[in-house]
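Exercise 7. Given the components listed, write out the predicted structure of the assembled complex. Treat all entries as one system.
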Amino acid sequence: MNLMPFTPELTLAATAIIVILLDLGIQRKRWLAVVSIIGIVVSGGFTLGMWGGTPAAIFNNMLVADNFALFFKLLFLGIAALVILSSNDYVARFSRFQGEYYALVLLSALGMMLMAATTELISIYIALELSSIALYALVGFLKDSKSTEASLKYLLLGALSSAVLLFGMALVFGFTGKTQLGDIARVLGAMSAQTVIASPGLLLGMVLITAGFGFKIAAIPFHMWVPDVYEGAPTPITAYLSVASKAAGFAVILRVFHSALGSPSLLSLDWALMFAILAAIGMFVGNITALPQGNIKRMLGYSSIAQAGYLMVGLATMGLSPATSASGQSTVMFFLAGYALTNLGAFIAIIAISNKINSDMIDDFSGMIKRAPLLTLGLSFCLISLIGMPPAVGFMAKFYIFSGAVKQGLLWLVIIAVINSVISAYYYLRVVKVMWLGKPASAETVPSSYPLRVALSLSCLGVLVLGIVPGLMMKIAEFAGKMFAF
Amino acid sequence: MGFNYLTTIIFLPAVGALLVAFWPGLKDRQIKWISAVVTFISFALSTYLFCIFDRSAAATGTMQFEEKISWIPAINAYYHLGVDGLSLPLVILMTFLGFLVILISWKIDLRPREYFAWVLLLEMSILGVFCSLDLLLFFLMWEIEVIPMYFLISIWGTGRKEYSAIKYVIYTLFGSAFMVAGILSLYFTTGSLDMIEIGQRGLAMVQSIMPVTGIFFLLIIGFAIKLPVFPLHTWLPDAHTDAPTAVSVILAGALLKMGGYGMIRICVSIFPAVARQYALLFIILALINIIYGAAITLRQTDLKRLIAYSSVSHMGYVLLGIFALSKVSLVGASLQMFSHGVITGLLFAMAGLVMHNVHERDLRKLGGLAKQLPIMAVVFSVAGLASLGLPTTAGFAAEFLVFLGSFSSTAIPGMSVYTVIAIIGVVLTAGYILWMIQRVFYQPAIEQYDGVHDADILERVYMFAFIAVIMLVGIYPAILTNIIDIGITPLVQLLGSL
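Answer.
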């Protein structure tokens, strides 16, 4: 059996195990971070080696290594590396469990990589659980009351949504008799369009699957866990949740809805409209509830609900596009890449600042421009990108996603989305205002370790470069947008 | 095609901004000198472009100094720059104001590094708006100016500066939201983001069901907020009054012109039929701008707020000239954009100087300053007279062209009546300008102000630079109208062929 396409995952699993074993022996836990990064780099090397080749399916068509999966694998590896780099300042708080921390981050990344690569319903579920269980533990890592509460909320709601997801998958299986996505597509294609649209089982299954995945991507109305979990989790894990977990959720939604439920086109029109409405409501709810927030992690949590709304506009576009075009999903993928860099940059700066002032409240960030000029500049730039203003990648990402949507006749949704960008400007700029105009509480500078500054610089550089010359990344996204379901 | 003039003019201030922001250990004097040198070079280059600009009849309808490279193939976006008769005067205006603004800001001592970095970045984005010929690049530059304005007003401003800054940002972003929807609709219907291409090919080849009127209005909302057009003008008094002097100069002098330029270049050039159909609506709005704006100005008691409201009224002339849709009125509107930029720039600079030296901005408390500040009195008076349209000043040349053009326009029935109503605005303008000057300078002197400083050398330099340009354009407007003519003629042909 050809295991070559599986090497990135194998490498990452091996790295996680090595980290746990090394933790038994060595005293300087800093080395565990180094080992993790090395493992990520090796895994990334294997992934890059497969880029551009012919798609291969292994394990009886359960796992596929097409460019779509490779794109997301590289994304998750990059995010994991940046999170580990920026955790440097944070792990001192986990007195005894640093080895487990790094291992769990790696295992969660492994689960996400599998989520992007699998083309079979049960494997999707398993990968989802692998990633989520690691995250449940990571959220509660601080072991104080807030962190534990966040972890428990995440666990309970996550378990519930996984159950709902499984029920949906069972219904789809019951209707089509297959669990492999390509097979499902073939079965649906063989039936008449009327049977497919009129069947309550399939539609209910589709809705329940959306509910299950909607939890992961923080879509309305499955978003209630986000503010509490984001606030209680350790900040590097909040960053990890807000970008990687969301990207994984979108990867698997893209795959399931495009490959399995993509035809007949009446069906895809159904779920396109569903995503469009969820997007519209999600954007408003996310942005309006973010307006009064005083805790920056909570505010970014609500903002990520709104950002999921913008992404769902891309999902709606994909549903309305012809099955052969990659335009809908490529816009979502470009947005995810840009959003990952932006959000990571913002959270990395917040890690350093919160560490020093021991607070996550926005008012305590007052006057930071004098105490930590480069951190403030980075955070401000990332917030400007989140509003969607040039020269940051947020503008290009939104322009790209909205251009795809207008092409498919969703001008009404685009107008709602751009109005929401204006609403969001208010609360993002409020943070900027406090940092630049406020009086600093003390004159002490905010220290930040070298790895954290490297991570922040990489993120902000990425945000700027992708904002000015996005052409290459857009081409990559278009190339990787073609999914193979076998 | 040789040297990339436009790229240099646009991005030299940005390079200056990066230098000023990030070079460690710069002293205040060095920061100011770097800024001054960078903006002067941009100004010199743009003047050079003015001299070598091809004014022959063969150049009508072509873009000069064009640069075009592929930027984002995935969405057919190009890095496309070029100027024609319409945009070159505005580029010169911005580089001129950009250099003088550095001189006006010479005495800034609060966080000068950030101040000059933001000002230079602002200059880059406004120049980018005037030079870009690709819709995405145009919009990108349009958006970039918002953040520097936010910081400049909220940190270095006065009064309710934070409120005014966020109001400005939200208002502008609101307009941009609709503008981006309009740009996307245009891109969807024509498959291209190139302004020239869309204008030439016309929307006749459109195969979509999206109504062109809808796209026209989506686009024009953004420009209407910027110009500003009643009733979307309420951000202007706050932003102008609470901004620092130099920022008010740029805001009134160049930023408002982005709205007018966008209307002519995008809305009227690409949608001439819709413009003609709805011209009456915009003429009425222009009249409200002129009369209502002037009436409100009469009631102001704060010096800066008075000048701010006067901008609303003067930009009404621009709107009138644009939607009268005749050749002379469009030339007049463009000339009015230039002359208003210089005149109101000077007015704000003088107001700032008065406030800085006298520490008083309430008109009821000022008086008789001509005794203590003779030079400032003369310059302020000249500026005021230019603003009300006295012959031999640029204000007269521009307003006369606008009125002549709109009176003789055949685009809409009853145009002559509207023009007469607009001319009443001139009387009101005379009213508030003369009353303001009288209240500030020409009543009996107040002892409290004995010993305030008159303008020093640096200030006299920029004051006379302003006056020189105002007089030059006023006495010989052909220096600009020759160029504007070349840019407007193809547009008029487009309108005329309807």
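Discussion: Chain A has a mean pLDDT of 90. Residues 145-176 of chain A form the longest helix (32 residues).
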